[in-house]
Amino acid sequence: MITRRHLMGSVGAGAALAVTGLKLPFPDDAQAAGAAKEPGLPAGTRSEAVLGALPGKKPLIKLSYRPPNYETPIEYFRTPITPNDAFFVRYHLSDIPEVDANTWKLAIGGDGAEKQAELTFNDLKAMPATEVVAVNQCSGNRRGLFQPHVFGVEWGYGAMGCARWKGVKLKDVLAKAGLKKDVVEIAYGGADGPPFDKTPDFAKSIPSWKALEETTLIAYEMNGAPLPHFNGFPARLIVPGWTGTYWMKHIVSLEARTSPLHNFWMTSAYRVPLGKFPMAARFTTQEAPGATATPITEMVVNSLITSHADGAKVKRGGSLTVGGIAWDGGYGIANVEVSTDGGKTWTAAKLGENLGPYAFRPFSFAFAPKRGANVIVARATNKIGQTQTTELVPNGAGYHHNLPHRVTLNAA
Amino acid sequence: MKTVCALLAAAFASAALVTGAFAEEKPVELKKAPGLDKVEANCAACHSLDYIQMNSPFPSAAMWDAEVAKMIKAYGAPIDDADAKDIAAYLKKNYGS
Fold first, then answer.
1. pLDDT confidence of residue A99
2. What pLDDT digit, counting tens, does each position of A56-69 carry?
3. DSSP one-letter string for A9-44
4. Is residue A99 domain-resident?
5. Is A92 within the bounds of a domain?
6. Which residue of B has its CA nearest to A149?
7. Given a cut of 60, is residue A6 above it in pLDDT?
8. How many beta-carbon pairs under 8 angstroms link A with B?
9. Which of A246, A263, A295 corresponds to the end of one domain?
10. Residue in A68, A151, A198 closest to B67 by CB
11. A100 to chain B: nearest residue by CA?
């Protein structure tokens, strides 16, 4: 069923949901649609945003129809695993074919391969399988919150999700063709493409060392089910720790390369200023001598308060538990601190279930709300000592926003 | 050039019907002002027009000029100089800061 309602305007989002009979999973939360009203987004962002359901998906926040860019409402991040039908959708280019698993093939080759190889979907599923729980986050998640604003899909907080991915190690797939010693990068492409042949097709590469890691997979299952069409059916690349730009959907080709891949998507797009972000993992074969920019790689440490929407009404006194999720580029979350006074004082939160270093890590914190506004802030630190930034690092594409998230709870 | 774009748009519309991928797409209404016809004929061939409101009203005139140039130079949009000028003027006037 296709449903859509304007999120802003004369009808509030909550009322719109009631009209359609749609329910977000937390009907008790009067501010459940808070994701639609994030302060700080460009004024025009939500004027065309609607809750829209793509085929096979729950209503998500539609930012653009074509190519489809749909954001997951914050409410779905109250658990460390994001449901498949609520998982965000992000495409650069709008020619997106329905891929038939029975005719799908993965071609493996390149000047760094010993020979050419080809796998069918059955071939892939017959290989030894492995699983990893990992966060897939768009490089530009929270772009809309950058000040000053920058062009792009003006995401709020929900261009991310965490799933249990099942598939075959990329290194095992590459072994079907064999790698020469001087391979520097593995490049790859998907079945989707541009609507116009002069638009650069979306192709990416990763360093060979990242390609050969035990957790880099060609996945065909997500949370125990086939991948949804809009999340890359029948198979996609999983690059734990690294931003979503490397996680090729509908993957159809692998190319072992003895030279760096240079195209628009590698050389112009998805670059960050060198030396401004705490990057432990660098993609050095993509760095020209003396360059001031480098490819974005691992996610920066971050956290999100998901238990309450900004502006929620709570009871004064007693004990109120607030919480959310924290994640990083795969080093693992060491601690999350919570402030209930807008960042003046901080106390360690309790960490929840550990699904591995690449997963969302839940946290919770109990306190007694004071009368009036209680400004809750969360700040995560990872196991290599990186913590969330106190000042946004300007960059033209609006990547790596990890300012501490804050919500105001009003106690009466 | 407009014919090419119209053909592209038509081809795309039929592709969408086949795959159903964009059955959800609804018309996006932009402000009625001079240049809107050029925006609809060119920009909508490759992406829905909600990209414009989403990226407004913060862009300065220079930012909109650069964005139109990027669509042509980086993304290969087949827009001739006269249309590009009209499109940029429309965006600056109606969706700029």
1. 97
2. 999 999 999 999 99
3. SSS-HHHHHHHHT---S-TT-TTGGGGGG-TTS-TT
4. no
5. no
6. B58
7. no
8. 108
9. A295
10. A151
11. B19
Give A268→chain B minimum CA distance, Å.
9
> What contacts 24+ positions apart, CB below 8 Å, involve A22-26?
A22/A51, A22/A59, A24/A73, A24/A75, A25/A75, A25/A76, A26/A75, A26/A78
- pLDDT tens track for A102-124: 999 999 999 999 999 999 999 99
My answer on whether A291 and A382 are in the same domain is: no
User: What ipTM was assigned to the predicted interfaces of this complex?
Assistant: 0.88
Which among B26, B28, B63 is the nearest to A4, CB-wise? B26
B50 contact residues in A (CB cutoff 8 A): 48, 62-65
User: What range does the domain containing B11 cover?
Assistant: 2-95
On whether the pTM is more than 0.80, the answer is yes
Cβ–Cβ of A199/B77 closer than 8 Å? yes
Count CB atoms within 10 A of the CB of residue A269: 18
Alpha carbon B62 to chain centroid, angstroms: 17
CB-neighbour burial class of residue A78 (10 A; exposed 0-12, middle 13-18, buried 19+): middle
CATH for A369: 2.60.40.650
**C-alpha dist (Å) from residue A293 to A23, A272, A289, A397:** 44, 5, 10, 12
Do A154 and A70 belong together in one domain?
no
Single-letter amino acid, residue B81:
D
pLDDT of residue A35: 44
